[in-house]
Amino acid sequence: MAYDASDPRAALAAPASAPKAVTGPFTPAHYAKFYETAPQEEAEGVRTWYARGRNFIVAYSEVQPGAVFARDDQPDEYVLMLPDRGMEADITAGAETRTVEGYSLAFIPPGASRIVIRAAGRIVRLFTPRSTDLAERCSNAAGFVADDPRIPPLQDWPTPPDGFRIRSYTLDVPPEPGRFGKIWRCTTFMVNYLEPAAGPRDLTKLSPHHHDDFEQCSLILDGAYTHHIRWPWTTNMNHWQADEHEYCRGPSVTVIPPPSIHTSRAEEAGQMVDIFCPPRMDFSLKPGWVLNAADYPMKGG
């Protein structure tokens, strides 16, 4: 890991055990540039693009008032993001209905649920591939037919002590020294709504790092970023891959696989969201980083 001293991640604890020897072959990165492609769904005031990683599905939608998103038999908890101020949505799950304002995040229980949009804008929904009907719609579904031995099978984190219910959180949280972004978690996902980039990132303060056993999803909502990705060299040159320096605008999704070394540089003012499924333990262990830690128990107690 290589973090600038000003980056809160520089204080993350080192792995408890020695890393495994790195061998290939390696899983490639995926880039889904929604602004360059037609949506996978388009009907009744809704345009939706789908892309996935090993454990997650991102559904990005442009919506009009009255649009409805229903799940009749959702197998697990999922996420709704309303990134635009001025948005509004009614969420019903079981006997509970809540109105959620724009610039917020909501976790929706498994089972039957319904989202009704009250104002035009954008929404993002996050699912696991247990939602098989959505997994098959993803533009990059063919890239995840084979397993990646580095990524363990998906296991949910503990259910809240008071059970599943609709939980919503405003994204309007001021930055705090020593805290990295704005992080929430549920039983299936961890969402880090990063501080918006005010302009190009300082070239002397990038953050090349890697993950041993999980993917990172970087969702760009606005602006433009370049994702720099490098794979390890092993003794088998057949497994070597060229460095990638992929320029992505919003909206787009980048899936960064382990154990690639990666960092992203804002090229202009913009907003990026990092998504992990399941939640990250290292972020969860940092006091004060997970803003709703009181609602969702940590794995392992």
UniProtKB/TrEMBL annotation:
Record's protein name: 5-deoxy-glucuronate isomerase
Organism: Falsiroseomonas algicola
